[in-house]
Design goal:
single chain
C-alpha cells in the first residue's frame, strides 16, 4: 500500500481534492448526482469540459518540459494557469494548495 497516496487523498488533508467541490454540492442539491453512476457521469463531464481543455493541457506540457529539463517553460505554464483563475481568492487558495503539496513532496 502506498502511504503517500493515501495521505494525499485523505479528506483531512487541507490540500486534497476535498478542499473544493467544483460544483459537486450544487449538482447534488439539484438532484443531478444521486448515486454512484450519476457521480461517475458528473465527474466525467467535469473532467472533459472543465479540467481537460485547460489544466489537462497545462499538466501535459509541464510534464514534457520538466522531462526535457526546461524549468523556465514550466514556470511560464504556471503563470498561464495562475492568470486563468480570475477571482483573487480562488487564485490564492490554489497557490496555497500547490505550495502545501510541494512541501509534502519534499518531506
Amino acid at each position: 500500500m502506498n502511504l503517500h497516496l493515501l495521505q494525499i487523498s485523505d479528506s483531512a488533508l487541507p490540500i486534497s481534492g476535498y478542499t473544493h467541490s467544483w460544483g459537486l454540492e450544487g449538482a447534488i442539491g439539484l438532484g443531478l448526482v444521486h448515486d454512484p453512476e450519476s457521480l461517475e457521469r458528473w465527474t466525467g463531464h467535469w473532467l472533459r469540459s472543465s479540467v481537460g481543455p485547460f489544466e489537462g493541457i497545462l499538466v501535459a506540457c509541464s510534464c514534457r518540459s520538466a522531462r526535457a529539463g526546461r524549468p523556465a517553460d514550466v514556470a511560464a505554464l504556471n503563470r498561464y494557469a495562475d492568470a486563468s483563475i480570475v477571482p483573487p481568492t480562488v487564485r490564492r487558495a490554489s497557490r496555497e494548495m500547490g505550495e502545501q503539496l510541494l512541501g509534502l513532496g519534499t518531506t
